[in-house]
Automatic annotation (TrEMBL):
This is MarR family transcriptional regulator. Pfam families: MarR (PF01047). Residues 1-126 form the HTH marR-type domain. The lineage of its organism: Bacteria, Pseudomonadati, Pseudomonadota, Alphaproteobacteria, Hyphomicrobiales. It comes from the Bacteria. It comes from Bradyrhizobium jicamae. PROSITE patterns: HTH_MARR_2.
């Protein structure tokens, strides 16, 4: 899992390089694609970046043509960030070889095996979210008051 995750990071970095944006900007694009049209505050929330850092990300992505700022029709003070679909599709084409390789791999599994793998992936995602929140709690606690993180109990 760690190798696959690390290789996914490397693949994303290569795509970001080809797209002419930074890896952290590419990560924000991923969140925008998953979340849809969001405010800068929401993007900061889901990425864990500060609002100041998110402003820089949005500025760079907007300049590169990947996102646009849109004012809320009912509250002109509120600004949403939207992905420019045509530009996002340019990035998406770099993922086609990886998607094809994964589809080829998955075709060797039965439906029951795929359901188990999907459950495993979803449960793993929940575990990462839980661990991230725990780590944020440590970060938000002054060093002198931090309680050491517990090691997970082995299932074996």
């Amino acid at each position: 899992m760690r190798r696959s995750s690390a290789q996914g990071v490397m693949y994303g970095q290569a795509v970001a390089n080809v797209a002419g944006i930074s890896n952290s900007d590419m990560d924000c694009m991923d969140f925008l694609n998953l979340e849809g049209r969001v405010t800068a505050g929401r993007l900061a929330e889901v990425t864990g970046l500060t609002t100041g850092a998110i402003t820089g990300v949005i500025d760079r992505l907007e300049k590169a043509g990947y996102v646009r700022r849109e004012r809320d029709e009912s509250d002109r003070r509120k600004v949403f960030i939207s992905v420019v679909e045509e530009k996002a599709a340019e990035i998406g084409k770099f993922y086609v070889p990886m998607q094809a390789a994964m589809h080829k791999l998955w075709s060797g599994y039965t439906d029951e095996e795929l359901r188990l793998l999907l459950r495993f992936a979803n449960d793993g995602y929940k575990g990462v979210l839980e661990a991230t929140e725990a780590l944020k709690g440590v970060i938000d606690t002054p060093p002198e008051k931090r309680v050491p993180l517990k090691s997970p109990k082995s299932r074996r």
